[in-house]
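As a warm-up, study this chain.
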Amino acid sequence: MWRVVASVLLVGGFSVIMNMSVGMHFTETMARVTGTEEVCYLVKTSARGVIEDIDRSTNGSCRVARLAVTKPKYRDYQIGTRVMVDYRYVSPVDGKTYHGRHAQSAHEDGSPIRRGDELAILAHKKNPKATMPTVEF
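Now compare it with the structure written out below.
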């Protein structure tokens, strides 16, 4: 029982430290979406739903992934997808425009991200080229 409590405290403590670090080093800023790209990969899961393998040999091509799952080697794999969002933003560090990219399939309200949309991102307070999404998907 004490191991479970210790594990919960450790994970909770790590989460608090990570949130504090993000708050200390990043600030929310708005970015303009310049493009999106659907990226595919192959995922093998066990009968219990546990991921056993992720194969990225398709290099992100959804067409190649669809072909791969028809081959005997990949018959136990499913196609996983991510949406990569390209955006430009003005850095709070130096006021210059930079480009960024991260995986995010939807806005915080669940609506799909499209070219031209405004997107909230976290921009680093000291490194003008460092960003991260405000939400994890």
